[in-house]
Amino acid sequence: MVVVKTDFPKEQELGDERESIGDIKGFLDGRCIYGQDTRSKVLRQFEQHPVLGVFLDDSFDATSYARSVLTQSTAAASNRALEDGLGALDTELRAEVVTRHDQLLMQVSGLRETETSLAAVSTGVANLQAAVVRVRAEIAEPYRQIQTRTRQLAALNETVDLLRRVLRMLKLIAKLREQLASSNPDLSKAAKMLHDIEQLKADGDLNGIDVLDEEVSWLASVGKELRVKAEIMLKQGMQSLSQAEVGTVLQVYYNLDELHGAVRDVQARYIQVLSSQLTLALDPAKISAVSAAAAG
Questions:
Q1: Is 230 exposed, middle or buried (0-12, 13-18, 19+ CB in 10 A)?
Q2: Does the pTM exceed 0.85?
Q3: Is 233 in contact with 249 (CB distance < 8 Å)?
Q4: Residue 192: is it exposed, middle or buried by C-beta count within 10 angstroms (0-12/13-18/19+)?
Q5: Is the separation of the CB atoms in 184 and 139 below 8 Å?
Q6: In 47, 206, 249, 251, which residue has its Cα 20 to 30 A from 149's Cα atom?
């Protein structure tokens, strides 16, 4: 039995033993990277060794082992046993490396080939990324140009349509002025021109165009005056039972797209007059008075 001195550096030795245990534990379980059983004579001797045998146990814990060694004051003996075991394992490992020298070289060659393949793949990926960037640039720029040209074309179409409607309105306004300025204006033609002007205004927003804003008040007064004249002519034609005059006025309302409303108003007005006349004519008191006057 080995007696440990009281000044033995327990913590330092505990750390050293932990490192030594961690170095040899992987080999003591009797397996290597080739998946074959490598249990040698040295390991079989370890199984019978009172100190090293515990390292082959699957439930071995390095911390518990070191604490137990320090508690039992067998650290020096355990340390010497561990050093002998490490020497034996080192010799066994060297022999294993020599035995499998060719296999290890093949593994290294395989790694080099893998690195070469990986480098080729990396180069291919870099070239592909560069091609994607180049294709994206070649496609993106024409696409942006097409978008710009499309917006410009749409703006040009809107501008052309606006100018077309403005010119059409100006021509109609000039013709309307000329028609109303004549000595005997044709109200039906004037109504058609006025309706076309109003329709062009309804088709789109033309506010803010100076040449048209100047005509807005005049067009409103012309429309009001034309409708008043048509209403007066219709009343006169109905009273005089003039088909020509009534037909002319109805043509004016038709050109203004107001024929249905005008006929409905006239119909309602004459129905009311007829109803009043019938009520007055069929009044019993008046009939009795007329009969009495005729009998006397």
A1: buried
A2: no
A3: yes
A4: buried
A5: no
A6: 206
